[in-house]
């Protein structure tokens, strides 16, 4: 196999280098991990195979560095789309292999990021809804100021959604309340999708945060809502529903590596409902249309400090 090794300290200017606030952080409150994505696609007849891999974003609470990309691709590049760092590779050889590795420093950060353009975080999307049952529930929860509305929304979700319906699930489904009332339908939705939908229906900018569970290596989501005087605040309703002793109002459980905020990302002619893993095409068709035996993946997270 022809092998190409590249060591990067940034992904096209997306701020992957560590900032001074991280370098000066309290070591007792920092953790460092190595995240590795490895994929192999085996199609004897394929003449054109493409793969897109989401990489972790740089934020005030996590700093990726030391990116390494290895593979037998014909061409590769890194770029950003909607602030999401992406590795793209294209192949004609067989089998197709790629490995992407990145170190991630995570810091307990009490500062809240600010945004200037919030209108997109108020709009409904395919699966983040502000109509139907979401609209009905929001009317009951929209009394008071922003903070009071958020308390109402968070309490309603904890009281009315059980863990089976709340958890992240990679399929099309309908989330039901504890009394079997349909609340929201869609693909790759969770209690965080409901939280974000209710926030937007109540006039509060909100977004889902998509990442990888450090222990199970599966998709894990959390939520953020924007309060005008403080910026983006953290919320973790799924963790609170799973473990009643954990209060996720205003904080996230320390159990995941954050990737991006993407919903319905457009990649060529396809719409990806959740960009939580590699997306690939084989001669123009989505990889998921083929048997799993033709595609192998390995995700690994190693604790460094």
Short description:
The protein is α+β, with helices and mostly antiparallel strands.
Polypeptide structure, described:
It comes from Helicobacter cappadocius. Residues 137-237 form the Transglutaminase-like domain. It holds the Pfam family Transglut_core. This is Transglutaminase-like domain-containing protein. InterPro entries: Papain-like_cys_pep_sf (IPR038765), Transglutaminase-like (IPR002931). With 305 residues, the chain is of the alpha+beta class. The protein has two domains: 4-109 and 266-303, Sandwich (Immunoglobulin-like); 123-204 and 216-254, no CATH class. Helices cover 16% and strands 40% of the residues. The chain has helices at 20-23, 132-141, 146-160, 163-166, 191-201, 237-242; strands spanning 4-8, 30-41, 49-54, 62-71, 75-81, 84-91, 96-107, 172-176, 182-187, 206-213, 219-227, 231-235, 256-260, 263-267, 270-274, 279-282, 285-286, 295-303. Strands 1-4-7-2-18 form a five-stranded antiparallel β-sheet, with no helix packed on it. Strands 5-6-3-16-17 form a five-stranded antiparallel β-sheet, with no helix packed on it. A four-stranded antiparallel β-sheet has the order 12-11-10-13. Helix 2 crosses helix 5 (191-201) and helix 3 (146-160) runs antiparallel to helix 5 (191-201).
């Amino acid at each position: 196999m022809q092998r190409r090794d590249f060591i990067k300290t940034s992904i096209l200017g997306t701020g992957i280098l560590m900032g001074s606030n991280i370098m000066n952080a309290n070591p007792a409150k920092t953790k460092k991990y190595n995240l590795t994505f490895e994929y192999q696609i085996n199609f004897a007849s394929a003449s054109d195979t493409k793969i897109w891999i989401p990489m972790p974003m740089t934020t005030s609470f996590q700093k990726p560095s030391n990116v390494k990309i290895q593979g037998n691709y014909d061409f590769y590049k890194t770029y950003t789309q909607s602030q999401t760092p992406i590795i793209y590779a294209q192949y004609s050889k067989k089998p197709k292999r790629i490995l992407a590795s990145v170190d991630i420093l995570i810091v307990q950060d009490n500062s809240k990021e600010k945004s200037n353009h919030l209108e997109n975080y108020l709009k409904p999307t395919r699966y983040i809804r502000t109509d139907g049952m979401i609209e009905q529930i929001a009317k009951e929860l929209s009394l008071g100021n922003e903070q009071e509305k958020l308390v109402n929304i968070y309490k309603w979700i904890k009281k009315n959604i059980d863990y089976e319906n709340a958890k992240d699930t990679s399929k099309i489904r309908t989330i039901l309340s504890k009394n079997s009332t349909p609340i929201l339908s869609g693909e790759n939705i969770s209690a965080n999708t409901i939280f974000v939908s209710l926030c937007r229906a109540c006039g509060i900018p909100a977004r889902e945060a998509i990442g990888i569970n450090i222990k199970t290596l599966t998709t894990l989501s959390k939520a953020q809502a924007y309060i005008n005087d403080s910026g983006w605040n953290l919320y973790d309703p799924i963790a609170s529903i799973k473990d009643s002793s954990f209060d996720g109002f205003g904080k996230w459980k320390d159990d995941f590596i954050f990737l991006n905020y993407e919903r319905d990302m457009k990649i060529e002619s396809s719409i990806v409902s959740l960009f939580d893993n590699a997306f690939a095409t084989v001669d123009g068709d989505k990889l998921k249309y083929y048997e799993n035996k033709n595609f192998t993946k390995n995700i690994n997270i190693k604790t460094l400090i």
